[in-house]
Amino acid sequence: MKTALVLGGTRFFGKNLVQTLLSKGVKVTLATRGKTPDDFGDRVERIFLDRVEKDSVIETTRGRKWDVIFDQICYSSHGAAVAVEAFRHSTSHYVLTSTLSVYGSLEKTCYEEDFDPYKYPISYTRRENISYQEGKRQAEAVFFQKAPFSVTAVRFPIVMGKDDYTDRLRFHVEKIMHEEEIGVPAIEAEMNFISQEEAGEFLVWCAEQKLKGPINACSNGTISLKNLFSYIEQAANKTAKTTSRLTDENSSPYGVDHSWTMSNEKASFWGYSFTNLQDWLPSLIKAFVESEKKVPLS
C-alpha cells in the first residue's frame, strides 16, 4: 500500500488511522468538508467534498486512484451507493468502519457470521431516515453486494480514547466525581472495548492484508460496568451511585440490558495480536480522572 484516501480522518480514531498510515510511509489524501481542522500539516494532501452527495464526490475525485480507500463516515445505504459509484475505478480495495451494533441484541458472543451482509435486503435511504444500527447494516449490504472492488468491513465495539468526542467515558467519570447517580439497567453486563490507538492500527492492518468480508476487532477480555465503575472509584477516591431508575439525565451511554460482546478469533487467527483490555483501560481512566480534577466542581 503506497497511497490511501481517508474519508473521515480528522476526528477520534480517524486521526490514529492517518497517523499509522503516515508512520508507514503511505501517501495520504484526506477527504473532508473542511470544517474540522487537523494537525497533519503538509504531511497529507487534502481534498474537499460532501461525502453523501454523489456529484460532489465524483467531481472531486474524478481520474484519481488510490491503493486503498478508508471510509470512517458511511452510515447508510445511500452513502454506500455514492461510494460504490464514485470510486468504481478509483481503488482495488475498500475498508469500511462498521460496528458491533449490526448484530442487534444477541444474548451471546457475536461472531462475524451472525450478520450476513451478502444476503441482507437493501433499502436505499439516507442516514437521517434510519437508526445507526440499520444504517450500518445497509452500508455493509450495499458494499458487499454491489461494489466492484474488494471490501473489508471492520466491526468495532465502543471505542475508547482521550479524543472521544461523544464523551461516553467522561460521562461516567464526571458522574462519579460529582457524586451523581448513574442509571444502569444491568450493572453486571459484560462488554468489549477497543482503544482509539488500536482501532487506527487495526484498520491499516486490514488494508495491508487485503482481507475480504466482515471482521470483528476488540481488545482481549471483557469488563462489567460494575468493574468499570470500580476502576473510576479507585482513581477518583469516590463511590459510584448507581440506580436502575433511568432518566434522560442519568442514563449510562454504556447501559446495555445484557452482556454485549464479540469474538476477535477470526482476526487473531489471521495474525493480528490484540492488546489486553486490562493493559490500557486503567491508565486511560486515570487520565480522565486527573483531567476532571483540574475542572472546579460546581
Automatic annotation (TrEMBL):
<dbReference type="GO" id="GO:0004029">
    <property type="term" value="F:aldehyde dehydrogenase (NAD+) activity"/>
</dbReference>
<dbReference type="Pfam" id="PF01370">
    <property type="entry name" value="Epimerase"/>
</dbReference>
<dbReference type="GO" id="GO:0005737">
    <property type="term" value="C:cytoplasm"/>
</dbReference>
<protein>
    <submittedName>
        <fullName>NAD-dependent dehydratase</fullName>
    </submittedName>
</protein>
<dbReference type="InterPro" id="IPR001509">
    <property type="entry name" value="Epimerase_deHydtase"/>
</dbReference>
<dbReference type="InterPro" id="IPR036291">
    <property type="entry name" value="NAD(P)-bd_dom_sf"/>
</dbReference>
<dbReference type="InterPro" id="IPR051783">
    <property type="entry name" value="NAD(P)-dependent_oxidoreduct"/>
</dbReference>
